Amino acid sequence: MQYWEDVTLGKTEESAERYTLTADAIKSFAHEWDPFPPHIDETAAATSAVGQLFAAGVHLLSITIRLSHTVPHEDTSAIAGRGWDSVRFHRPGLAGMVLRARVTHLERKPGSRPERGVLVSRFELVDQDGQVVASFLNNVVMLRRTPADA
To answer: Which positions fall inside the MaoC-like domain (predicted)?
Structure first.
C-alpha cells in the first residue's frame, strides 16, 4: 500500500493505454454534455476559429481521468479528490489525435486531519506528437503512514 509519505515527487509516468479521438466520439459526447455547435456540427466547426470539429474541454478532461487510471502504480491510500486547479486547454482536441495521460507528483501538503495529507499532481493530456492538449493540478487526499502529530 502506498501512503502519502511514500509517493515519489518529481517522477513523471504515462498511461499504459492510448485513446484515439474520433469525430463520432466528439459529437456523441458533446450532444449529451456540451452541445456547442462546433462540437457537434462540421459546418459550424468549419467557420469557428479552429476551422474543424473539436472536442469539448470537459470531454478532454474526462479522457485524461480515464487514461490516468492506467498509469502503472501500486494500490494507494487515496481517500478522495479535493479539487482541480489551473485547468488549461493548450490546443484543440481534434479527430485523429492519439492521446495519453502523463502524471507528475509535485507536492505534499498537510491534510485537514493529522492522519491525512494532500498530494498535488500535474495531469496532462498529451497527443501523439508529445504536445500537451490539456492540463490541470489534481489534489488528492491520502492517508498518511504516520499521523502528523505522532
So the answer is: 10-112
